[in-house]
Amino acid sequence: MQTLAVVGMAGSGKSVVTTHLQSKGMERIYFGNLVIQEVAARHLPLTPNNERLVREDLRRIHGMAAMAVLSLPVIRAALERVPVVIDGLYSFAEYKLLRQSLGDSLVVLAVTSTRALRYERLAKRPVRPLTAAEAELRDMAEIENIEKGGPIAMADFTVINDGDPSQLLATVDHWLQGL
What we know:
This protein has 179 residues and is α/β, with parallel strands linked by helices. The chain has one domain (3-177): Rossmann fold. It contains nine helices and five strands, in the order βαβαααβαβαααβα. It has helices at residues 14-23, 32-41, 48-62, 66-79, 92-102, 115-124, 132-146, 149-153, 165-177, and strands at 3-7, 27-30, 84-87, 106-112, 157-160. The chain has a five-stranded parallel β-sheet, with helices on both faces. The protein is globular and about 40 Å long.
């Protein structure tokens, strides 16, 4: 495995997993950073609504594979040095582009959790917290507008994150040992 893409709905634990893998020497490439940078470049406040609008706009401009298209040069450069972990592969088009470009060196790990637990986590997170209503709107927009379910359904492996972060990371570490 050269590239691991961690997929899941907001609040599932993707960033916990990718940050952990980064601490183990993988280079973390966060697709959502492209959106955050573009929100700032447009001099907009960083709100869930502005992130959604920019995310959807980038996909209108660059196609549904926008984040992968814009990140592929960075991924390839990083792969010359270290294995890569991708945080934020969302659309099925991104999945297909990365699978075509990276072949069997791409492994997709889905992190799942119940909707209620995800919404609870999103409300408590220190950066960009979401109310349950905002989280539900985000879920619907990501599923309907950016095909987020596709990469989760096509994942090579799935971990269920229904406990605390240490349990999740122990599960991921155990899974990695088996690869």
